[in-house]
Amino acid sequence: MGYIKDHFKEVADKQSAAIKKLIAEHGEISLGQVTIAQAYQGMRGIPGLITETSLLDANEGIRFRGYSIPELREKLPKASDGKEPCPEGLFYLMLVGEIPTDEDAGHISAVWARRSHVPNHVFQVIEAFPVSTHPMTQFCAAVLALQTESKFAKAYEAGISKKEYWDYVYEDSMTLIARLPRIAAYIYRRKYKNGEHIQPDGMLDWSANFAHMLGYDDDSFKELMRLYLTIHADHEGGNVSAHATHLVGSALSDPYLCFTAGMTGLAGPLHGLANQEVIRWIEELQKDLGTLTPSKEQIADYIRKTLSEGKVVPGYGHAVLRKTDPRFTAQMEFAKVHCADNPTVQTVWNVYEVAPEILESTGKIKNPWPNVDAHSGALLKHYGLVEEDFYTVLFGVSRALGVLASLCWDRALGFPIERPKSMTTEWINNYIAKQ
Ligand code: FCX
Description:
Strand content: under 5%
Helix content: 55-70%
Largest sheet: 3 strands, antiparallel
Family: Belongs to the citrate synthase family.
Number of strands: 3
Pfam families: Citrate_synt
CATH topology of the largest domain: Citrate Synthase, domain 1
Distance between the termini: 58 Å
Keywords: Transferase
Strand order of the largest sheet: 1-2-3
Number of helices: 20
Shape: globular
Number of domains: 2
Bound molecules: alpha-fluoro-carboxymethyldethia coenzyme a complex
Radius of gyration: 22 Å
Protein name: citrate synthase (unknown stereospecificity)
InterPro entries: Citrate_synth-like_lrg_a-sub, Citrate_synth-like_sm_a-sub, Citrate_synthase, Citrate_synthase_AS, Citrate_synthase_euk, Citrate_synthase_sf
C-alpha cells in the first residue's frame, strides 16, 4: 500500500499548508450573500463547502480534478482487454490529484482485491432481512455491520493524536471500497438468483470482478461496469450522498458510519433512486402504449400526462446542472457502440428528443435536460440485469470512491465539525422588520 498513501500524505500536507496561508491572508473575503429564499429553498447556490475531488459547472458538467468525462475516458488507465477507464484510476486521481500510471491503478486494484474478504457476520445481517427488503436497505445495513472492522474507531477509542486521523480513515476507506462489490453482489444473488453466490476472481480488476460476482461475464458488460463505476463516483460536495458523508464525518464518525449516511441519502427517489424510477417510468410508458418503441408524439403526450398528474419526469432536471449531463452523454456514446438497436435504448433517445422542450415550456423547471439516471437503466436491461430495484446499489458502490476520497481529504486537512446556523421563521420575520 505504502507509496500511494505516502504520496497522498505529501500532497495533502502541501495543500494543508497552502490552505492555512490562504485563510490567514484572505479569510475575510466574502464568497457571496445568503438570501432568505436560499435559506428556505434547499440552500441552493450557497458556497459553503470545500470538496477537493471534483467541481461541477452548471453548463459543462462535472470535472474530476479538472478533467472532464471525455478526457477521463481518454486519459485514465484501462484494463488490458478494455477501452473504458478503470475506476481504480479515477480514485487515484481524486485522492492524489494526478492522472495515475497503469502501475498506480494496478496497485490500487491489487490492494482492493487483497482486502475484499467480507466477514461472515455481515452476510448474517443481510440474511436476517426478508428477501423482499429493498436492496438499498440491505446494502446500508451491511455497510453498517462492517463497521465492526473500523480501524479508525478502534484507534480513536485507544486514544490517538489528531494528526493521525487521516491515516486510519485512509485505511478504513480502502478496506470498505474493497469489500463493497462482494456485499452488493451478495445482495443481488440472494434476492434475484436464489442465493446462488459466485466467488470473487482475484485476477480481475475491481469492476470486472464485480460484474463476474453479479453473474455477468460478458466482456462488454465488464466495460459498461468500468464506465458506470467511473462516471457515478463523484459530483462535487453538495449533493445529498456526498454532503451526508462529509457532515457525519465532521463529527469524527468512522468511514463506515459516514458512508452509511451517504447511502441512506442516495436511496431517496430525488437522488440515486431516480435510476430505478426512470426505467420504471419508461417501461410503464411502453406497456401503456403497447409498444417498445412509441413514437415521439406518443412520448410527448405521456410526458404531459406525467406532469399533469403532479409527478416528476425521472431522470430530468438537476439542482445545479443547466445542460445535458455529460454522464448521460457518455452512456449514450457507449450505447451507440454496443447496443444501438435495443428498443428501450432507442426510447431513451426519443425521450431525450422531446422531453426538454416540454419541460422547458412549464416555465418552472430550471433544467429541462437529462441527468445521469436517464440512461443507465436501459443499458443494464440490455445486458440482462433487469432488476431495477438493484440499480441504486450500483450507483452506491461507485459513489463510495468519491465520498471516501473526500473523507480522507477532510481528515488530512483537519476540517472541524460542521455546524451551520439555523433560524426560525419568527427570527426571519424579526430580521425583516429591522431592515
Ligand atoms: N419533472 C417534473 N417537475 C420537475 C422536474 C422533473 N424532472 N424537475 C424539477 N421539477 C419541478 C420541481 O419539482 C419544482 O416544482 P415545485 O416548484 O412545484 O416544487 C420545480 O420544477 C423547480 O425545481 P428545480 O429548481 O428545477 O429543481 P430542484 O433543484 O428543486 O430539484 C431535482 C432537482 C433533480 C430533484 C428535480 O429536477 C427532480 O425531481 N428531477 C427528477 C428526479 C431525478 O431525476 N433525480 C436525479 C438527480 C440526480 F441526477 C441524482 O442525484 O442522481
